[in-house]
Amino acid sequence: RLPAATLRSLAARHNAWHLAMPLLQQSLALAPTEPAWYDALASLHSALGDRDGHAAVWKQRALHAETRRALALEQYGAWQAAQDAYAECMSRWQAGEMTLVNTPQPELALWEEGIVRSAKALNQWELLSEYAKAWPGSQPALLMECAWKSADWERLRDLFRRYDMRSQAALKMLQTYAAIHDGKLAEAEGRCNEGIQIALAQWCSLPPVSLSSHTHLLQMFQQFQELQESAQMLLELNTAQRNNQVPDLNSILVTWRERLPNVWEELPAWNDLVSWRNHMFSHINNVLGRLAGSENPALATKGYRELLWTVVRFA
Q1: How far is the C-alpha of 303 from the C-alpha of 253, rounded, in Å?
Q2: Residue 263: how many CB atoms within 10 A of its CB?
Q3: Whole-structure pTM over 0.70, yes or no?
Q4: Whether 41 contacts 25, CB under 8 Å
Q5: What's the farthest any 2 CA atoms get from each other in the chain?
Q6: What is the DSSP secondary-structure string of 135-147?
Q7: Are 304 and 281 in contact, with CB atoms under 8 Å apart?
Q8: H helices then E strands: how many in the chain?
Q9: Are residues 131 and 90 in contact, defined by beta-carbon separation less than 8 angstroms?
Q10: Cα–Cα distance list, 40 to 47, 52, 92, 242, 289 (Å)
Q11: Exposed, middle or buried by CB within 10 Å (0-12, 13-18, 19+), for 120?
Q12: Spatial CA neighbour of 265 closest among 205, 215, 210
């Protein structure tokens, strides 16, 4: 019988999901008290974006009814209620309540991860920033994400220097954000291309029939596309400033209006897109304000108009 860690690695790295997951389920049925099978199966469901499958594994494994209740709330998308349920479990455990004092370490970790997932879904980035700062060595990726969400570019660059993280598409995206903000368009193009290649490799490692496993990558590809378009707009703005002429940004801005997330996509997908677009609109407005002068006041407010339209559409 292959070890759980080997089966998990085969599934994720060699696109053997259809082979590894049934084997893990069979092994779990034969040894229902062995935590390694639960860990591997829950990890694979999470990697596929299968919230229901992940919850099903944990409902079978969880020691407490309170954990199963919090998981059910998360399944239904009741993020605030789920966060409150996880936080209540953690508070009662910390207070030494007898019914929860014997909670296994994996279940404690599930409560903590549940609070973080709920905070991301609710866009509670100040809370997440405080949490990540309390455990900086173990949460560098979350620290970086919080820094970009709060537009703290100096801190984001410092985190890049301090932590040597494995190349991931999300990391390349953050590096592209920072490079575009600094006006380093050549570096931004390189980081963006690297991120796209990593994301494509990840796409090829996923099963071809699952929609939820691909949703996050589809959202990421849209963000990379908009980063490339942002670099094009910066190049156009730089040329316009040198030649003292009006830049032609209409084609990209119209495309951005028409290319929005689906109405059923969760709040973080919209927030990521809107946050970056608003940053670009502010920069566009600053440049156009200098170019417009008193002869063309409407040009000076173009960035504001796009920003307002996007915020209203987001609301």
Answers
A1: 10
A2: 6
A3: yes
A4: yes
A5: 79
A6: STTT-HHHHHHHH
A7: yes
A8: 17, 0
A9: no
A10: 11, 16, 28, 57, 55
A11: buried
A12: 215
Instruction: Please answer whether residues 278 and 311 qualify as being in contact, where contact means their C-beta atoms are separated by less than 8 angstroms.
Output: yes
Question: What is the distance of C-alpha 264 from the center of its chain?
Answer: 17
Q: Tokens for 24?
A: 């893990």
Per-residue pLDDT of the chain (315 residues; tens, 9 = 90+): 789 999 999 998 888 999 999 999 999 999 888 999 999 999 999 999 899 999 999 999 999 999 999 999 999 999 999 999 999 999 999 999 988 988 999 999 999 999 999 999 999 999 999 998 888 777 888 999 999 988 899 999 999 998 888 789 999 999 999 999 998 999 999 999 999 999 999 999 888 876 788 889 999 999 999 999 999 999 998 888 888 887 888 899 899 988 888 888 888 888 888 889 988 888 888 888 777 665 666 666 777 788 888 878 776
What's the residue count for the chain? 315
Give the CA distances from residue 293 to residues 41, 248, 282, 297, in Å, rounded to whole numbers and listed in that order: 62, 17, 17, 7
For the chain, where are the E strands, in sequence order? Answer: none
Cα–Cα distance between 24 and 219 in angstroms, integer? Answer: 30
